[in-house]
Amino acid sequence: MIELKGKPVAEAVYSDINKQLSTWSEKKWNSPHLAVVLVGDDPASSVYVSHKQKACERLNFKSTLICLPATASEAEVAGALQKLNLDSGVDAVLLQLPLPKHLDEKKLTEIIDPKKDADGLTQASLGALMAGQQKVASCTPAGIIEMMDHYKIQLTGKKVVVLGRSLIVGLPLFHLLIQKNATVTVCHSKTENLSNLIAQADIVFVAIGKAEFFKPTDFKKDAVVIDVGIHRRPEGLCGDVSSENAEGWLSARAPVPGGVGPMTIAMLMKNTMTLAQLHRQN
Fold this sequence. Notes:
Elements (H helix, E strand, L loop, with lengths): L1 E2 L2 H16 L2 H4 L5 E7 L3 H17 L2 E7 L5 H13 L5 E4 L9 H5 L13 H8 L8 H12 L8 E5 L6 H10 L3 E5 L6 H7 L2 E4 L17 E4 L3 E3 L2 E3 L13 E3 L6 H21 L1
Parallel strand pairs: 1-11, 2-3, 2-4, 5-6, 5-7, 7-8, 8-11
Antiparallel strand pairs: 9-10
Helix pairs in contact: 1-10, 3-10, 7-8, 7-10
């Protein structure tokens, strides 16, 4: 069984960004600038934002973090995003999710200028993705596709199942897989005969948010399973799929931790680089 580890793929992405940046000084272009808006003190969000800042430092990107209290009003968050939209020195904007429950995530995400949409979640960005004309795509799905390319896992013509239909993972991933000529079925909580569908799939992407909900033998023998879930337990991190008995049953799997995780940050850096380049060329 092949372990599809994200770190080597992320390193290749960072290397490619550095190669592109090497030409910027000749053009007298400023470094790419990513701004992140963090609302509240959710521990997981704080860790993710810290990783994003470290990645920016590593690549010599400019990084701005705007922290708002958990009690911030919708108007206050909207105001912070609008200010970043108007700042010509900012290339990419990310609203860290999830937001406190009293705030409307979709409404606030929609305030971000699509030309600065670092995670590809505005309606304009999602529409471009559906039309196959995206400049950037949501970081986690884009990172998954990058992994598949890196490990030369064939998608064309394969029976593929995506478990989960969120705007952050499942639906963008569906469109990216269609662009790769896979035959894709999206499953969710209302799907009937789920066990039959996943037992027939060559490749399964699991993003349901339930710790170790599936076991490797739920999938077809020699299937490829990409586990996107991540959960904290006293004994450590785990995904949506148990790792027990995966060896000898699956042909390849993305482990948790160490699989998809590193790719999300890497693709945020790649998206920031892409938006910065477009900003300077225009």
